[in-house]
Predict the structure.
Amino acid sequence: FGLPPLPIGSVPRPNLVREVERLLESNGGVALAGYPGAGKSTLARLVAHAAVGASRPVFWLPAEGVAQLSQ
């Protein structure tokens, strides 16, 4: 639901995707942190697309700022 497409030219990161999936499985959630442009959003999209491909439910909620999250 609402999942944006992968950016053109995005680099596959199968090891990182598997690690995030493992963390989601064991912890129920994961926080991606890093400098702007490090690829956090792309990694999140890769994980979400992998989940959709495996027939797992995905809800993509864009948050343009912290204020939106509290509404």
